[in-house]
Amino acid sequence: MKYILVTGGVISGIGKGIIASSIGTILKSCGLRVTAIKIDPYINIDAGTFSPYEHGEVFVLNDGGEVDLDLGNYERFLDISLYKDNNITTGKIYQHVINKERHGDYLGKTVQVVPHITDAVQEWVMNQAKVPVDDDKKEPQICLGGTIGDIEGMPFVEAFRQFQFKAKRENFCNIHVSLVPQPNATGEQKTKPTQNSVRALRGLGLSPDLIVCRSAKPIEMAVKEKISMFCHVEPEQVIFIHDVSSTYRVPILLEEQGIIKYFKQRLNLPIDDQPSDLLMKWKKMACRYERLLKVCSIALVGKYTKLSDCYASVFKALEHSALAINYKLDLMYIDSTELERSMEAENSVKYHQAWHKLCKADGILVPGGFGIRGTEGKLQAISWARTKKKPFLGVCLGMQLAVVEFARNCLNWEDANSTEFDPDTKNPVVIDMPEHNPGDMGGTMRLGKRRTVFKTENSVLRKLYGDEMFVEERHRHRYEVNPELTHCFEEKGLKFVGHDTEGNRMEIIELENHPYFVGVQFHPEFSSRPMKPSPPYLGLLLAATGTLNAYLQRGCKLSP
């Protein structure tokens, strides 16, 4: 097993996840089996209870793990299926060690950070690195991992300082991602932050084999030579990644700078110097992305719109679908509170700007979320999409609110609501699931991959999924559509075309006589891949560009 540790310096959010994923993509294109582990130093057991403004979206895995969004990057780039144990947190490690101590496994010894916590980290990494993540279920050959050097992450850094000797030099490689800023005042690219970052890392006992320098613009050769000299590495060990038009370009930039040849020599890998067809596909995809001319605009109506990472997988799923039909995506984030009537009185400019965005969009998407804030604005957007025949996709809460909107405006149940927002409503069209504990918040939802069965052949989504009898998608919800009231909706044209294997839980809605009005209880964005777009999102883009019917008539084949 070969281990590649990716560390970050200078600032967070520098792109460790994308760079690690891109390196994995290159190695996978050389015929190697690659897995990935993300290390987060927070004390939370998992990411499930975070606000999206803390660390971005919560990514959900097949086994129900609620994890950091970087694991989403790993899955999308490498086309693998990871597990909850591929995301290590301080909370998980300490819980594991404390449970062993309570069990008496340490035989009365004083339990300390070194060696017990550091040993637990190393043991976890070695065990998880062997778990198959590809469809062929073969053991991986390379394990990519990422962590940072904050004070709370010191036990992890110390664990890897020890681990590099345990694994041996030919099996362990450290990549350090740093920032090369370019102040506007001088316009000169500065190397001092990278020098200090590498010096600090060396002081902790880790010496980088590759230094990946992030910058706004391409870095000059003189800067490369300066970093090489002051950071005690060869010039070919300094890699530049400047801001690019799309993340699809990153693996290509890395490959152009000789990273395959370096890894072959440094880790003694049994590979050719040249990448395979997989990387050629990435090159074609990156070139196609940059040449797109036609634009499709989608309005994303949510409550976490100030930070794009809050909807990272939704954005990627839309981007994959737009690229598949040769359109450039124009994603307009709309804060749902700005669509509400109260906003008109409070700030009429924001209110009218939000509505202007919504009205000019080709399609409307209402993603998942929790809590009552902004729900009235989402209901307004759904009503607009339904009455104006705008293509619409509702995901999780978006589907539930589509049911609430239909109940209020088509069934005339004025107080129809979800018990999440109004526990005393007389028409509870969305209810909490009885088997899920409302006391503890962490890990108590309906999570992970579940089967959804189509109950009719006359379904747009079934056709988009290739006319399959069932689909398996990832879930993350605590509330569901009230199954006792579904017949009232179906009589008026809102069809529940998909349900769970028992037939009690409503999973997919479709509205009759509408170009595309679809809601799904699951999160299809988590399964979207650059070369395999998610069918519900693809349907939204096709409908928004007016090409859905032609696509269905061609037997769900994309035009060349």
TrEMBL record:
Entry similarity comment: Belongs to the CTP synthase family.
Enzyme class: ligase
Pathway, per record: Pyrimidine metabolism; CTP biosynthesis via de novo pathway; CTP from UDP: step 2/2
Protein name: CTP synthase
Domain of life, source organism: Eukaryota
PROSITE patterns: GATASE_TYPE_1
Gene: Ctps2
Enzyme Commission number(s) from the entry: 6.3.4.2
Physiological role: Catalyzes the ATP-dependent amination of UTP to CTP with either L-glutamine or ammonia as the source of nitrogen. Constitutes the rate-limiting enzyme in the synthesis of cytosine nucleotides.
Keywords for this protein: ATP-binding, Glutamine amidotransferase, Ligase, Nucleotide-binding, Pyrimidine biosynthesis
Keyword Ligase: yes
Catalytic activity: UTP + L-glutamine + ATP + H2O = CTP + L-glutamate + ADP + phosphate + 2 H(+)
